Fold this protein.
Amino acid sequence: MFCTYVMTHLGSGPQWNLVVQHHADICQETMWRNFLYIHNYFGFQNMCLTHTHQLGIDMQLFLISPLVVYLLWKSRWLGVLLILTVCWWSTALRYTVTYNNNLSTVVYFGVPVAKLFDTANLSYILPTHRATIYLIGVLVGYWLRNMRKIHLNKMAVGVGWTVAIALALLAMCGPYHMARLHYSYNPEDAALYNAWSPIVWSGFLIWVIFATEQGYGGVVGDLLRWKGFVVFTRVAYAVYLTQFPIFFYNVGTTRHSHYYRPYMLFEMGEVTCILIAAVGMTLLFDLPAQEIKKIVWRRRTKHVDVSSDESNLYRKWSSRG
């Protein structure tokens, strides 16, 4: 609502109508899709607040996750089989769609903007293509929940970290040749990377989580246990929501060209504005909403407890009679 009806009156610039006003116009027509968490099915060009596509994907996958968890609880092997089957299907889908439509998740020299939009619309923002890593996460969570302490010697821990780091480097640097100046697009390269990179990266994350949980995390585990992250998690959701409107505002109000410098990737003024906006949003909206939910849930729980106590008391007196 802020980006649609308020932000458009807070600035101006050569790119203002193209960036800020254009997105506000889209939101006026299509924000109802965001409220229903279905906006990721209508393409980037017609999406209100494009960075929130992940909310739609997460919501849709979250709605099916109780069924998967229930199946794991009732029949472990049947649940595992279902997860592996869906993961295989989702991986094959990413490969096939990328290859047949000449898509690319790697921004190489000379890539047309239209191809990036097609990649987003046909693969990146669809839950069927994201199901692989999501269901792997569900399976790992189930495994950790039921796992006992596993004792590993130093060599095994070292091998685990070596393989995990190799997987991370492969996921990040595997398409290095695609970033070269004279690279010629090859659909096989793009399809293989889009299909396998999420799985390879998840292998790294699984080891980090496992090692930290089991006490083999070392310096990485100590870093992940840093209490400062507890504070950041309070505002992380608001950071996610506010960062792109601030990006749009800065682009829209820019009135002259700049020479690019590496430090511009992490501009402290912009980061500070995002953090301030995120803290304000958390204090004004997020935390009060959570408190309201707790109050409503507490009242409902008390009502259930009282009803249960009355029923037990009635049965007790009935048995005496």
